[in-house]
Amino acid sequence: MRSLRHLPRAAAIFAAFHAAALPALRAQPTLKDTYRGMFHLGAAIRPDQVNGRTPQAAELILREFDSISPENVLKVGPIHPRPGNDDSSYDFAPADQFVDFGVKHKLFTIGHTLCWHSQLPAWLDQQQKSAEPTITKAELTQFLRDHIMKVVGRYKGRVHGWDVVNEALNDGAGGYRQTIFHRVIGQDYLVMAFKWAHEADPAAELYYNDYNLDANDAKRTSCLELIKYLRANGAPITGVGMQGHYNLNTPSAAKVDETIKLFADLGLKVMITELDVRAVGAAPVTGAVGAGGGGGRGRGAPPSLTAEQQQALAQRYADLFAVFVKHRAAITRVTFWGLRDTDSWRRASSPLIFDDHYQPKPAYHAVLNAAKSAGPAKAK
Ligand code: XIL
To answer: Cα(83)–Cα(80) distance, rounded to whole angstroms?
Structure first.
C-alpha cells in the first residue's frame, strides 16, 4: 500500500475500493443468492456440520443455503429416547446445536419431524411391532401431546416450520398407514398433532410431509383427502412437503408439475423437502422410495460417475428445477437431503450436487442455470 501515498486522493480511494471489491466481483454466484425472491434453498444437515468438527461443510452450507433441516436429531427416537416427559427423558443437546446454528446464521430452520412411525424410541417401536400393543389410547395421546408441546415449545420462535406429521399414508393403494398412532389413537391423532404444534408455537408454519405423492396417484389422492380432513377439523396446516426422493427418470417432470399444482390449488405452501436423485443403481420395483425403501444405501465412498452419468443427473436436476421455478409462487423452499454424496442416505447412488470433496458436480451448475427460466428476479 506504500505506493498509494504517491497517488492523488481520488485515485487512492478508487484503488482501495477495487482492492476490496474485486474478490466479491470474482466470487461465483451461489444457490441461495440465485434463487432469492423465489424460494429458500435448504440442506439436511448432521451434527458434525454444526458442532465445529467439519468446518468445510459448515462453510459450504452457509455459502449456498439459507435453510436447514435436521437429518435425524429432531426425530422422536433421537430427541426423546426414554418414556416420560421430564428433561431426563430427552436428549436435547444435538438438536439444540442444530437450532443454535440456524439462529446464529439467520437460516430458515426446519423441525423434522414430530410424529412418524419410523425412528421411534425403542420402547414405542416395540409397541408398534406388537400385534397387540399394551399402551392405552390415553397413554399414547398423552405421550404425543407432551412430546409435541415440549419440543415445539423449547424451540419456539427459532424453528420456523415443522414437519408435524411424516409419512402417514400407505404406498400402493394409498389410505392411512397403520402406525401405532393410527391403531391406538385413531385418525384424529393427525388433527391433534397439528393443534398441539400450533398451541406451542402459533407463529410456526406446520406441514404434512410424505414421499411418492408425485409417483403414485392413489397416494396423492389420499393426501389431498387427508388435507381436506385436517382442514374440516380445524387443524392449522400451512403447507405440504413433497419429499422428492427421485429416480433418474421417475416420476416424470410432468407428474411433479401436476402434483405441485394440485396442492397449490388448495392454497397451501408447497415444499420439496428431501430432494435427491438416484444417478445410478436400480430403482425399487414398486417405485417406493421412502424410509426403508431408499435403496442405494451402503457404506463406503459413493461410486464416481462417468461424464455421461453426470450429464444425465444434471439434466434431471435441470428439468426438475424448471418445474419448481415455474411454480415459484407456491413453492417456498427446496431442500436437498444432504450436502455431499458421501453424507447421503442414498450415497451408493451418488444422488446429490456436491461430491466427496465438497466440489460442485455438473448437476450443481444445472440447478444454478435453471433459475434463468424465471426471467428477471421479482420479490415475493
Ligand atoms: C433418513 C436419514 O437420512 C437417515 O440418516 C436415517 O438413517 C433414516 O432416515 N424420509 C424422511 C427422512 O422423512 O427422515 C429419512 O431420513 C428419509 C426418508
So the answer is: 8
191 within domain boundaries: yes
- Which one-letter DSSP state was computed for residue 287? -
Please give the tally of structural domains in the chain.
Answer: 2
φ/ψ of 115, rounded to 5, equals -145, 110
User: d(Cα 36, Cα 371) in Å, to the nearest integer?
Assistant: 10
Would you say residue 50 lies in a domain?
no
Over residues 250-267, the mean pLDDT reads 98
Give catalytic residues, as residue numbers.
Answer: 167, 274
Q: What pLDDT score was predicted for residue 334?
A: 99
Nearest to 255 by CA among 231, 220, 285: 220
Closest atom of ligand 1 relative to the 273 alpha carbon: 13
Judgement on whether residues 237 and 186 belong to the same structural domain of the protein: yes
Confidence of residue 299 (pLDDT cuts 50, 70, 90): low
Contact residues of ligand 1, CB 6 A cut-off: 71-72, 166, 243, 274, 290-291, 345
Ligand 1 closest atom vs CA 163? 13
For 211-232, what is each residue's pLDDT tens digit?
999 999 999 999 999 999 999 9
Question: What CATH number does the domain containing 99 carry?
Answer: 3.20.20.80
Q: Are residues 37 and 152 in the same domain?
A: no
What is the CA(290)–ligand 1 centre distance, in A?
A: 8
Cα–ligand 1 centroid distance for 345 (angstroms): 7
Distance 189 CA to ligand 1 centre (A): 22
Take atom 12 of ligand 1 and give the residue whose Cα is closest: 291
pTM of the shown model = 0.90
Confidence of residue 301 (pLDDT cuts 50, 70, 90): confident
Minimum CA distance residue for ligand 1 atom 17 = 291
Of 118, 162, 299, 336, which is best to mutate to test ligand 1, by the most ligand atoms within 8 angstroms of its C-beta?
A: 118
Q: pLDDT of 168-226, one tens digit each?
A: 999 999 999 999 999 999 999 999 999 999 999 999 999 999 999 999 999 999 999 99
Between the CA of residue 241 and those of 50, 107, 203, 256, 331, what are the distances in Å?
Answer: 24, 18, 18, 12, 10
Same domain as 368, residue 233:
no
